[in-house]
Design goal:
- The structure holds two protein chains of two kinds.
- Chain A is an alpha+beta fold.
- Chain A has three domains: about 150 residues, Aldehyde Oxidoreductase, domain 4 (2-Layer Sandwich); about 180 residues, Alpha-Beta Complex (Aldehyde Oxidoreductase, domain 3); about 325 residues, Aldehyde oxidase/xanthine dehydrogenase, molybdopterin binding domain (Aldehyde Oxidoreductase, domain 4), CATH 3.30.365.
- A seven-stranded mixed beta sheet of chain A has the order 3-6-1-14-11-12-13. Chain A has a five-stranded mixed beta sheet with strand order 9-17-16-15-10, with helices on both faces.
- In chain A, β11 and β12 form a beta hairpin.
- The longest helix of chain A has 28 residues.
- Chain A starts with 15 loop residues before the first helix and ends with a helix.
- By secondary structure, chain B is α+β, with helices and mostly antiparallel strands.
- Chain B has two domains: about 80 residues, Ubiquitin-like (UB roll); about 70 residues, DNA polymerase, domain 1 (Orthogonal Bundle).
- Chain B is built from five helices and five strands; from the N terminus they run ββαβββαααα.
- Chain B has a five-stranded mixed beta sheet with strand order 2-1-5-3-4, with helices on both faces.
- Classes of the chains: A alpha+beta, B alpha+beta.
- Chains A and B meet through α1 and α15 of A and α2, α3, α4 and α5 of B.
Chain lengths: ~775, ~160
């Protein structure tokens, strides 16, 4: 096996220099002459009919150029997955607080803000529903989308329940016979868990600059993750060909899923404003608007019933999960289905039943959040495993080892288990955290405890394409359709191309973020980019090399299969001295054959749709990443505060292309995991976000993370046979097991089990006091 | 309504004609094209807009532009000298302290403010000082590593 030159190396990010000098440009760093500024007029009620919109006073403010109204919106329902919304409420119905009703556009942001306050809307308030279980009933007091039956899904056959008027998604898995399984069990454990609504808090708020190009092309520059989805949705919405839509995406300041499907948020509104005003328009979210309208992670209620043998073997598991989507199916339509896979990828369960529901309520919209439903169900599963262990007197690490899938096993959906490394990951985190040794207690009110959890993260199969051009100076230009949002995809692609051509990384040039130039990719979702985009790039490099070898073969008189390439030279592998430089295959900029040296490729993993009744399929997902986390916490018994004092994770994400970047993802995952476990919750009061700012919605600061010596990110790769150089993905898996690991550690510390996120001081203190009372009694 | 301001930014003198209620962050970005100053919350809660005013690290979104009249302001664009990066910039690259990059200018300037005042801080002191800068990507691990590396290099 030849030594790899670029793969597996921690080379510095190729965009780091731009970013540390402030030169890197994000969408709001661009300026367009004549640009106007837009702001959304938002609904004040969670459910209402619009009786009248009065804009005379607003329009009279000097500098107001236009106001986009519901009737200006195309008469088409659209969405990222489920097409259930108009761009503005043409149907006259408001379904949540903060829902866009109109867009005011003026010369400056100050004028726009003033005019927005002067738009007068008369509403007739309607009863609203917020509780997911109430909304999921057969006769809910409020039906959020009466026309649900007519909606269309772009992604899979629409699977709602005829008897449940607010249900827009029902996914099933049926494997074995749970009833029999429970009868055969020695012990049964049944519980209810819930997760909280949380916000991504990407540092860069959403922003779109929209304009109509001189040839009529609808153009936008946007902070987004899925530009080709925007391209297609604009084509449908505005009735043009996709070639008449152009989406630019510069650097993105954090996505985490929040910017998946932006084509259903600000983008159409900005475009409508640009069309109506005949000027470029910038529409952006303030931080408050990011919190209010930002498509949160939905809260998920999970019912789980486990049946085990006395020796800890899982016999049966029955799960029901309800995702509270808010007013839009849209991306939530997919989350509500795919959250099932969190229960599929890790354990061997002979009898399994899953029912996952997506339900509408009058809450603000939800969407993709790092993990896409998997952390929410893992929250339940990994606490169950600990509780089962305790009941049976088995070590929590042991009970997991016992029930893990093995290479080659079929999981509960019928998919074969491939590249399954979680067992090793579990061993490594157990060792690092000192599992089996009690934590060193300190004087005073802090009690320490340790907790462990495992998880997986599936990656869906969405094809990617790539184009590679070899220049006469031997440099390689790669065009890909993914988006650089901090995860480092541009650096990974650079390394793959450098490896393929045997050139230094600074001889690779990346072209990204323009749908007119870049190939189809869909974008960084589902932890897929290294695998799909990376593989497409790798294949495109090989295609380009074929053309180079063809020309070199003619020149050298040696057949192409005896040639290799490195450092700008094509050489005979058995006689490296016999070679020709890439430059000698060109005359000026024209190659000896053809007009350019271009390689193109697509990378596809065929999948089989899951059976609608049983969820069974030979391959639903492209692959799973596997993760184990261990934490040591300190709980303050006087205040209920929880501090994570040590944290570690081991990831089986295949062979990492850049181990430093992978480690960075894990460390960032620690932060998001700690935040969403202990500190973060979007508080809704009658559908109003009560804490839309960084003071009242706390994300971890430097003080909430443990000292660096107590943070350990480890990689324990099992190379995936289909990954580029064996790589998989880890962007989301890194947060999946953290919340239950912390909950398990808290239980270990103070004997309190919190089943509803977040593990807030308030909740913990209440329980501690109750337990304290019990001890006294 | 607009008024003239004299700002000395990154060693250069500027005269800017702007509304007095604009923030320094807005003026630096919109009038002087210093888009390295990032606005992530505009409410002084995240630190992305951190600049140095007369050597002190300040959240520029909370500073009314007239207050900066006559002051020396340093933004990220002024840190490198004659093409040579500041040690903090080099450390951020070397230690992988950058991911999406949106919080990066604010962190680097805040860290400069710290090291100018306290050249050899403990990890705890670094965390305390930087608690006003939010990052969602890195978990702060490599940011703190980078700052400490610069401190160690100096001493």
């Amino acid at each position: 096996m030849t030594e790899l030159s670029a793969i597996g190396k921690g080379i510095p990010r190729i965009d780091a220099l731009e970013k540390v000098t402030g030169k890197a440009r994000f969408t709001s760093d661009f300026k367009m002459s004549g640009m106007l500024y837009g702001m959304i007029v938002k609904s004040r009620y969670p459910h209402a009919r619009i009786l009248r919109i009065e804009t005379t006073r607003a329009q009279r403010v000097p500098g107001v150029r236009t106001i986009v109204l519901p009737d200006d919106a195309p008469d088409k329902r659209f969405g990222y997955g489920l097409c259930d919304m108009f761009a503005l409420p043409r149907d006259g119905i408001i379904r949540c607080v903060g829902q866009p009703i109109a867009v005011v556009v003026a010369d400056t942001m100050e004028i726009t803000e003033e005019a927005v306050d002067l738009v007068n809307i008369d509403y007739k308030e309607l009863p609203a529903i917020f509780d997911a279980e109430e909304a999921l009933s057969e006769k809910p007091p409020v039906i959020v989308h009466p026309d649900l039956r007519q909606y269309v899904s772009l992604i899979f056959p629409f699977s709602f329940e005829p008897d449940l008027p607010n249900c827009f998604q029902h996914f099933r898995i049926r494997h074995g016979d749970v009833k029999k399984g429970f009868e055969q069990s020695d012990f049964i454990l049944e519980n209810r868990y819930s997760t909280a609504r949380v916000s991504h808090c990407s540092l860069e708020p959403r922003v779109v600059d929209a304009w109509v190009e001189s040839d009529g092309t609808l153009s936008i520059r946007t902070s987004a993750q899925t530009p080709t989805s925007t391209q297609m949705n604009f084509a449908t919405l505005f009735g043009v060909s996709p070639t008449k839509v152009r989406v630019f995406v510069p650097y993105v300041g954090g996505g985490f899923g929040s910017k998946i499907g932006n084509d259903t948020m600000l983008e159409p509104l900005a475009m409508m404003a640009a069309i109506k005003s005949k000027r470029p328009v910038r529409l952006s979210h303030s931080r408050t608007e990011e919190f209010v309208g930002g498509r949160h992670r939905a809260d998920v209620i999970t019912y789980i019933k486990d049946g085990v043998k006395r020796d800890g073997t899982l016999v049966a598991r029955e799960m029901k999960a309800i995702l509270n989507a808010g007013i839009k199916g849209d991306v939530a339509h997919i989350v509500a289905r795919n959250m099932a896979f969190g229960s599929v990828g890790t354990y061997r369960i002979p009898n399994f039943k899953w029912d996952g529901f997506g339900v509408y309520t009058n809450s603000p919209p939800t969407g993709a959040f790092r993990g896409f439903g998997t952390p929410e169900v893992t929250w339940a599963i990994e606490q169950q495993m600990d509780m089962l262990a305790e009941k049976l007197g088995i070590d929590p690490v042991e009970i997991r080892r016992k029930n893990l899938l093995r290479e080659g096993d079929r999981d509960v959906c019928g998919q074969p288990t491939v590249a399954f490394g979680v067992g090793n990951c579990l061993d490594r985190v157990a060792e690092w955290i000192g599992w089996g040794e009690k934590p060193v207690q300190v004087e005073g009110h802090w009690k320490k405890g340790k907790g462990i959890a495992v998880g997986n993260k599936y990656t869906v199969s969405i094809p990617a394409s790539a184009t590679v051009k070899v220049h006469s100076d031997g440099t390689v230009e790669v065009r890909h359709g993914s988006i650089e949002m901090g995860q480092g995809i541009n650096t990974v692609i650079t390394q793959i191309a450098a490896e393929e051509f045997g050139i230094p990384v600074n001889c690779v040039k990346i072209v990204h973020g323009d749908t007119a130039v870049c190939p189809q990719d869909h974008g960084p979702v589902s932890s897929r980019s290294t695998f799909f985009t990376g593989n497409a790039v790798r294949l495109a490099c090989q295609d380009a090399k074929t053309r180079l070898f063809d020309m070199a073969s003619s020149k050298l008189g040696i057949s192409a299969d005896r040639l290799g390439i490195s450092d700008g030279e094509i050489f005979v592998t058995s006689e490296p001295g016999k070679s020709i430089s890439i430059g000698d295959l060109f005359i000026h900029e024209i190659p000896l054959k053809g007009s350019e040296v271009i390689g193109t490729a697509s990378f596809v993993i065929p999948t089989v749709p899951a059976d609608a009744q049983t969820g069974q399929s030979e391959r639903i997902v492209a692959y799973y990443g596997h993760f184990a986390h261990a934490v040591e916490v300190a709980v303050n018994v006087l205040t209920g505060a929880v501090k994570v004092v040590r944290i570690t994770a081991a990831a089986d994400m295949g062979k990492p292309v850049n181990p430093e970047l992978a480690q960075g993802q894990m460390e960032g995952g620690f932060l998001m995991g700690i935040g969403t476990s202990i500190y973060e919750q979007i508080i809704l009061k009658n559908g109003v976000v009560a804490n839309p700012n960084f003071i009242d919605y706390k994300i971890p600061t430097t003080l909430e993370m443990p000292p660096n010596d107590n943070v350990k990110a480890m990689i324990h790769p099992v190379p995936h046979p289909e990954g580029p150089f064996g790589a998989k993905g880890l962007g989301e898996g890194v947060i999946v097991p953290i919340a239950p690991a912390i909950a398990n550690a808290v239980y270990n510390a103070v004997g309190v089990r919190i089943r509803d996120l977040p593990i807030s001081a308030e909740k913990l203190l209440k329980q501690l006091k109750k337990n304290g009372q019990k001890e006294k009694d | 309504m607009k008024q003239w301001l004299r700002l000395r930014v990154n060693g250069e003198d500027y005269e800017v004609f702007t509304e007095p209620w604009k923030s320094l962050a807005d003026v630096l970005r919109d009038e002087l094209n210093l888009t390295g100053v990032k606005i992530a919350c505009n409410e002084g809660q995240c630190g992305s807009c951190t600049v140095l005013i007369d050597g002190q690290s300040v959240k520029s979104c909370l500073v009314l532009a007239p207050k900066a009249n006559g002051k020396e302001i340093l933004t990220i664009e002024g840190l490198a000298k004659d093409g040579k990066l500041h040690p903090l910039q080099e450390a951020f690259i070397k230690h992988f302290a950058v991911q999406c990059g949106f919080c990066t200018p604010g962190f680097i300037l805040a860290a400069k403010g710290l090291l100018d005042e306290n050249p050899d801080p403990t990890e705890e002191e670094v965390r305390e000082w930087l608690a006003g800068n939010l990052c969602r990507c890195t978990g702060y691990v490599k940011i703190i590593e980078a700052v400490l590396a610069v401190a160690k290099g100096k001493s």
